[in-house]
Every structure is written in C-alpha cells, then in structure tokens.
Write a structure and sequence with these properties.
Length: about 120
Amino acid sequence: VQLQASGGGLVQPGGSLRLACAASTSIFSIYAVGWYRQAPGKQRELVAALTRGGSTNYVDSVKGRFTMSRDNVKNSVYLQMNSLKSEDTAVYYCNVPIGDKVRYNWGQGTLVTVSS
C-alpha cells in the first residue's frame, strides 16, 4: 500500500489549508486512519484519527481547528486545518495506527509552513 499526502504549502498565521492523503488501495474503509506530523527536530506525532465508525479524535493542540474526514470511494482522507499557527509547521503524513506503531511504510508527506 502506498500513501501519498498532498495539499501542503506556505500559509500565513490564521490561514487555512486542506490536506489530502490518497491510498493505492481501499484501506480507509477497513481501518481507522490517522494524520501525523513531524516538526523540525521533533518526533512524529499523531494529531488526528478517524475510526471506521466515523468518530474522530484530535490532539489537544489542534482541537477546534482541525477537522478530519474520509472519502471511501476515492480512497482518501482529508485534514481541514483552520486558524493555523506557526507551531503547526511540519511535514504531514497519513497512516493506519496500530497502537503506537503504524501498519504501512511511511509514504510521501506534505510540508506545511505557517509563517508571515
């Protein structure tokens, strides 16, 4: 399975971006899926997760600002990011969480830079 994130870019603080992650096969209807990010010099962290049943969970730092969704027909998940802050600057990836590990190899992430 290949995972490819897209939609990143340079945005000013307070701005918005919508990230997409496409899978090479229909896995998002089978598994829970997460959006991860890795900021410069920091470990990768899980910031949002979407269960098979459609429930979402977010890390406290993005609650109320990020919204995760899924399109099973397109084998894609999305991350709507609003009110972006400089600390949201990171490379963003999607994957299928298994505890504190992931099911698949990390695919291509997408860089989000929040800066004025």
